[in-house]
């Protein structure tokens, strides 16, 4: 018993260190004063953070990534909530078949989704890049929404809803007054997870960005192709802060285990 | 189906059918129809030794990543599942944080660590273990390291949830019956978390198989995998049919692996599904 | 099979929170001793200390004269049946039962032979190739017992083994346990919170409360002569009369110690007049199947009276008669 715990705790501790240290190095190098990234750092400066905001690609990209992530998560919820309600409340023939369709996007590699959408929507249909990108990100978010909301809806006791009908609320009012408030934790979890999935996405975004449409992750990727300076460290730290903020929101309102 | 049900399901179904399945078919069908014969494009793809190398490398990286994450993940997850209260919370945050952090950031960290003037080379030269920097970056090893870093938290998370469901009395029963801790771990605990092992392995294997950012940043141009090859053929070279073939091959490998591992794990699950009955 | 001697066992999680307080107990060779108590009294903790699943902080445990306090659990050669049965879900019934034998460096034939033999004894032979998930609760319980007995343990430990079974199976299984225990002359410690099942099969019973043994006796002695108020309440004595009050009112009773209370079972209170009586008002009547129970509010508090007479009316007065021979004197606790 004890030696088992001791062995696994040693490995576990090392693994945790390995998980944190690389990110620590990123944080430290973002303050280094030399123009090439070096570790350990020689001097201290905040210039690289300043430089992040001098890069139009980063500033524009951050803005666009935010907009797309919020829109994609919202649309995925608007599509997902009714579908999950139907799938969990009604007798439907071939229910699992429908569920599989909704989880379908998770089955196809993201880079393939990006490529297929680019070929059809952008090249063949001539759809604007932004719209095509949004479609891609909605598809990306949908499986998360479906999975989290199905779990939330299953936990919800249907008899509460029936009780509301009994005292005279119609089904639509009941849905908004009784069902939604009771699954709001799952909705928030789905939103946060969708947001971060979209915000961090590269494989789909890769195909549908361009001079007119800058997204943050691909902008960093492009920047890295030509430069190797602590600006990337600095923008990485900003991304980590966004992650940390989302985790704090999740922890406060949901408990972190909701996100996994 | 009732009308209201149809109405609720319709938006989602339409979006998936029109905006995912239809584009996928449009990509899929020309790979058969555009060649001289039905499988011409695939024959061409598989006859290139370079392509076969890429497939082999992709699979090798995915397998290695899965095995390493399993090896590191199992003891770590076991340890985490035994933690309580605030420790558990802190450790969960450390595991979850990388999952939610952009892959570019996480791979960039390893560029700094593995690069020619990176942390490892600097350190080794400083202690005079080596005179010239080792080539660590832009190798298969670098891709595997990056992928392990990327997917280890996911493996740990799915294993922890499996370990946490264990009934500790079963372990104790084995100990009382004379099994040493090592025996208990391999003969009693591991078989019970096989479902978590499969779930984690599916996620990691498919993730590593289809990952783009890691091989792009850490593998360089020489060490192509299917995902980077797909990007190169389509965006860089505009070779649509060839890119489509790669996309199909990648999808088929991913889906078949998922399907097979899922079937096996379901079989195991049925066997292991023990409830206390009255 | 061996005699167990537990001496001054103590355990505390924090400085001030003692789970077990200086507990000593001797279990004879081949005896079935029950530890009876409410949840949280420390009975399961004690069993886990004996089994070695918890490390010993203070005191010692001797089996057949040898101190095993420092022996790790997997070397103790004890059998244990858990509340959740704790069957290995990934092994067949045969593999479950053979698991302990495989650790003993026996030949395959011997393992197989011993396993089959215990499977026969416990009536499980037809189920040997099934998985635990395919068995009913009673069958799983049997497997758990067979697995514990297969290694021919020095001591058999049972941790609330019947609490997950329904009423009928519970009786069946406790008789099975008793039968096997007697047949194999197995020294057995049986932890339970159910007095009925514990009285039915035990040679002796230790009633535990707050980390201490309140009374250690045969089931009959405990039932007829509970020593402390806690024991009396736990095994169904509901009526308590303060000795001071009884003396004041000229009651006659056996006065042999400095205890404060007398107690009496509901069925032993009669209705009548004369000495040793107490007046009260009926507040409720409950039909219990074989008799009626009247709740009578008296100046000493609520008394429960069991009688065949169903004609007493709620609200009416009743004079209760307490026979001297039925009044039990509790110790000062």
Give a quick summary of the entry.
Chain C: This is ABC-type quaternary amine transporter. The complex is a heterotrimer of chains A (260), B (278) and C (333). Chain B has 278 residues and is mainly α.
What does this molecule look like?
The complex is a heterotrimer of chains A (260), B (278) and C (333). Chain A is mostly helical and 260 residues long. Chain A contains 11 helices and no strands. Chain A is globular, with a radius of gyration of 22 Å. The model of chain A has no long low-confidence stretch (mean pLDDT 89). Chain B is mainly α and 278 residues long. Chain B is globular, with a radius of gyration of 23 Å. Chain B starts with a helix and ends in a 6-residue tail after the last helix. The longest helix of chain C is centred in the middle third of the chain and has 18 residues, at 167-184. Chain C folds into 2 domains: 4-228, P-loop containing nucleotide triphosphate hydrolases (Rossmann fold, 3-Layer(aba) Sandwich), CATH 3.40.50; 237-329, Beta Barrel (OB fold (Dihydrolipoamide Acetyltransferase, E2P)). Chain C has a 6-stranded mixed sheet, sandwiched between helices. Classes of the chains: A mainly alpha (260), B mainly alpha (278), C alpha+beta (333). Chain C: It is an enzyme of class 7 (translocase).
Number of helices of chain C: 9
Q: Biggest interface pair, residues each?
A: A-B, 85 and 86 residues
What is the string of helix and strand elements of chain B? HHHHHHHHHHHHHH
Task: Enumerate the spans of chain B where pLDDT stays under 50 for 5 or more consecutive residues.
Answer: none
The number of helical segments of chain B is: 14
CATH architecture of the largest domain in chain C: 3-Layer(aba) Sandwich
Termini gap of chain B: 39 Å
What is the terminal separation of chain C in angstroms? 36 Å
Overall average pLDDT of chain C: 89
Quaternary form: heterotrimer
Radius of gyration of chain B: 23 Å
Strand tally of chain C? 18
CATH topology of chain B: MetI-like fold
The CATH class designation of chain B is: Mainly Alpha
List the helices and strands and how they pair.
The complex is a heterotrimer of chains A (260), B (278) and C (333).
Chain A: H1 2-29, H2 47-52, H3 56-89, H4 95-107, H5 110-124, H6 129-155, H7 158-166, H8 171-182, H9 184-200, H10 216-226, H11 230-253
Helix pairs in contact in A: 1-11, 3-6, 3-9, 3-10, 4-6, 5-6, 6-9, 7-8, 9-11
Chain B: H1 3-28, H2 30-33, H3 40-47, H4 49-81, H5 85-100, H6 103-114, H7 119-126, H8 140-164, H9 168-176, H10 181-192, H11 194-210, H12 213-219, H13 226-236, H14 240-272
Helix pairs in contact in B: 4-8, 4-11, 5-8, 6-8, 6-12, 8-11, 8-12, 9-10, 11-14, 13-14
Chain C: E1 4-12, E2 18-27, E3 32-36, H1 43-51, E4 58-63, E5 66-67, E6 78-81, H2 93-102, H3 108-121, H4 137-150, E7 155-159, H5 167-184, E8 187-192, H6 195-201, E9 204-209, E10 212-217, H7 219-224, H8 229-234, E11 239-242, H9 243-248, E12 261-264, E13 269-271, E14 277-287, E15 292-298, E16 301-307, E17 317-322, E18 328-329
Protein name (chain C): ABC-type quaternary amine transporter
GO molecular function (chain C): ABC-type quaternary ammonium compound transporting activity; ATP binding; ATP hydrolysis activity
Pfam families (chain C): ABC_tran, TOBE_2
């Amino acid at each position: 018993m004890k030696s088992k715990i001791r062995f696994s705790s040693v490995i576990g501790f090392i693994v945790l260190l390995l998980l944190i240290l690389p990110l620590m190095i990123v944080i430290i190098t973002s303050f280094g004063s030399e123009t090439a990234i070096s570790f350990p750092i020689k001097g201290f400066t905040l210039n690289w953070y300043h430089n992040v905001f001098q890069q139009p690609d980063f500033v524009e990209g951050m803005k666009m990534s935010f907009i797309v992530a919020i829109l994609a998560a919202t649309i995925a919820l608007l599509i997902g909530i009714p579908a999950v309600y139907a799938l969990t409340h009604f007798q439907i023939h071939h229910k699992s078949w429908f569920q599989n369709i909704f989880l379908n996007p998770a089955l196809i590699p993201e880079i393939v989704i990006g490529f297929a959408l680019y070929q059809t929507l952008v090249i063949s249909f001539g759809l604007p890049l932004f719209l095509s990108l949004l479609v891609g990100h909605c598809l990306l978010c949908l499986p998360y929404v479906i999975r989290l909301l199905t779990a939330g809806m299953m936990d919800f006791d249907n008899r509460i809803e029936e009780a509301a009908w009994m005292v005279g609320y119609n089904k639509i009012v009941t849905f908004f007054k009784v069902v939604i408030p009771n699954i709001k934790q799952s909705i928030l979890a789905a939103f946060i997870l969708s947001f971060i999935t979209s915000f961090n996405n590269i494989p789909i975004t890769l195909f549908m960005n361009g001079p007119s449409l800058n997204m943050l992750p691909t902008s960093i990727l492009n920047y890295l192709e030509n430069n190797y300076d602590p600006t990337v460290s600095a923008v990485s730290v900003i991304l980590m802060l966004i992650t940390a903020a989302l985790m704090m929101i999740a922890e406060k309102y949901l408990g972190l285990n909701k996100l996994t | 189906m009732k009308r209201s049900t149809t109405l609720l399901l319709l938006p989602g179904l339409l979006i998936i059918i029109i905006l995912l399945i239809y584009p996928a078919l449009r990509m899929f069908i020309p790979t058969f129809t555009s060649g001289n014969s039905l499988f011409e494009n695939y024959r061409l793809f598989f006859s290139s030794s370079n392509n076969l190398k890429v497939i082999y490398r992709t699979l090798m990286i995915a397998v290695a990543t899965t095995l390493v994450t399993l090896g590191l993940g199992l003891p770590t997850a076991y340890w985490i599942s035994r933690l309580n209260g605030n420790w558990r919370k802190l450790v969960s945050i450390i595991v979850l944080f990388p999952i939610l952090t952009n892959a570019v950031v996480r791979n960039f960290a390893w560029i700094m660590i593995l690069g020619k003037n990176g942390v490892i080379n600097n350190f080794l030269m400083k202690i005079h273990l080596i005179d010239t920097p080792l080539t660590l970056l832009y190798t298969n090893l670098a891709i595997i390291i990056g992928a392990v870093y990327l997917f280890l938290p996911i493996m740990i998370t799915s294993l922890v949830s499996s370990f946490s469901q264990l009934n500790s009395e079963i372990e104790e029963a084995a100990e009382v019956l004379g099994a040493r801790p090592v025996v208990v771990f391999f003969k009693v605990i591991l078989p019970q978390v096989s479902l978590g092992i499969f779930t984690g392995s599916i996620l990691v294997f498919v993730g590593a198989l289809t990952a783009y950012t890691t091989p792009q940043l850490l593998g360089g141009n020489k060490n192509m995998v299917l995902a980077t090859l797909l990007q190169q053929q389509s965006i860089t070279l505009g070779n649509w049919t060839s890119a489509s073939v790669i996309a199909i091959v990648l999808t088929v490998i991913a889906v078949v692996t998922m399907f097979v591992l899922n079937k096996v794990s379901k079989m195991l699950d049925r066997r292991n599904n023990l409830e206390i009955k009255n | 099979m061996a005699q167990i001697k537990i001496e001054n066992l103590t355990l505390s999680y924090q400085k001030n929170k003692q789970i077990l307080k200086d507990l000593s107990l001797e279990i004879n060779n081949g005896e079935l001793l029950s530890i009876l108590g409410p949840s949280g009294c420390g009975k399961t903790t004690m069993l886990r200390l004996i089994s070695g699943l918890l490390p010993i902080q203070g005191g010692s445990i001797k089996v057949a004269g040898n101190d095993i306090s420092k022996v790790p659990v997997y070397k103790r050669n004890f059998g244990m049946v858990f509340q959740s049965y704790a069957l290995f879900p990934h092994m067949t019934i045969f593999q479950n039962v053979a698991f302990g034998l495989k650790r003993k460096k026996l030949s395959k034939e011997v393992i197989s032979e011993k396993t089959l033999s215990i499977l026969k004894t416990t009536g499980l032979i037809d189920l040997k190739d099934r998985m635990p998930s395919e068995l009913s609760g009673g069958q799983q319980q049997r497997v758990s017992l067979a697995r514990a007995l297969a290694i021919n343990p020095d001591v058999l430990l049972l941790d609330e083994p019947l609490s997950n079974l329904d009423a009928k199976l519970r009786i069946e299984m406790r008789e099975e346990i008793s039968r096997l225990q007697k047949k194999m002359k197995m020294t057995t410690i049986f932890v339970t919170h159910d007095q009925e099942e514990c009285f039915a099969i035990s040679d002796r019973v230790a009633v535990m409360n707050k980390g201490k043994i309140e009374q250690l006796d045969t089931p009959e002695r405990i039932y007829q002569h509970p020593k402390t108020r806690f024991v009396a309440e736990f095994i169904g004595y509901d009526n308590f009369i303060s000795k001071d009050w009884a003396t004041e009112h000229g009651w006659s009773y056996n006065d042999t110690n400095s205890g404060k209370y007398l107690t009496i079972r509901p069925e032993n209170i009669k209705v009548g007049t004369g000495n040793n009586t107490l007046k009260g008002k009926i507040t409720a009547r409950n039909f219990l199947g074989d008799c009626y129970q009247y709740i009578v509010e008296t100046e000493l508090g609520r008394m429960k009276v069991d009688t065949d007479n169903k004609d007493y009316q709620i609200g009416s007065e009743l004079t209760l008669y307490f026979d001297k021979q039925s009044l039990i004197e509790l110790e000062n606790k």
